[in-house]
Amino acid sequence: MKTMLSNYLAVGEVLKPQGVRGEVKVQPLTNDPDRFFDLKEVYIKQGEAYVSQSVSCHRVHEGYAYLNFEGVEDRDGAERLRGAVLYVDRAHAVPLGENENFICDLIGCEAFDREGNPVGMLRDVMQPGANDVYVFQTPRGEMLLPALKEVILSVDVQEKRMVLDESALPRLAVYSDDSSSIC
After folding, report:
1. 21 φ, ψ to 5°?
2. pTM
3. CA–CA gap between residue 37 and residue 55 (Å, rounded)
4. 2-51: per-residue pLDDT in tens?
5. What mean pLDDT is predicted for residues 57-84?
6. Which of 126, 135, 139, 180 has its CA 20 to 30 A from that of 27?
């Protein structure tokens, strides 16, 4: 059963106004904060609709992007944007490399071992450093597993399915409710 992927991808969240001329400080939800320099348009979800907003980015500093929205000229206007999640449509998303997926497309994937036995559902992806860590909800509780090619054998975001190397699970999986797990 093919899953319909969202047409919009979250790229940032407005944290607060910055100054008095309508600029906002944005927490990027992307690996490349410099991508904001190229953005001319973002979408903000209002109800079920995504509303287009023209933006410009003049600086990225210490991992934050600073944006101006067309028509937002003062701090009060910027304050109304606080907490807004900013989206781009897939046509304007950063191109992915081979074997790369957007995190939002991975969430909800069902994990199976090579024999087709269910392992759990991917509910979060942590990015602590060298490699991502997938967080699965399993019958044994929460399982954390490094996102390595040797462990994650295949991913099909359309089918919301991934296959894991079950031989790696006893060595690498960490269960939040199992203090005997090896990490």
Report:
1. -105, 20
2. 0.74
3. 10
4. 566 778 999 999 999 999 999 999 999 888 899 999 999 999 999 889 99
5. 96
6. 135
In this structure, the chain runs to a length of: 183
Write the DSSP assignment of the chain as a string of letters. Answer: -PPPPPSEEEEEEEEEEETTTTEEEEEE-SS-GGGGGG-SEEEEEETTEEEEEEEEEEEEETTEEEEEETT--SHHHHHTTTTPEEEEEGGGSPPP-TT---HHHHTTPEEE-TTS-EEEEEEEEE--SSS-EEEEEETTEEEEEE--TTTEEEEETTTTEEEE-TTTHHHH-EETT-TT---
For residue 107, give the nearest of 118, 94, 120 by alpha carbon.
120
Residue carrying structure tokens 């609709």: 49
Q: What is the pLDDT of residues 77-122, one digit of tens each?
A: 999 999 999 999 988 888 888 888 888 899 999 999 999 999 999 9
Pairwise CA distance, residues 9 & 29, whole Å = 9
C-alpha 170/C-alpha 144 separation (Å) is 12
CA 14 to each of CA 1, 42, 69: distance values in angstroms, whole numbers, following the listed order: 36, 12, 11
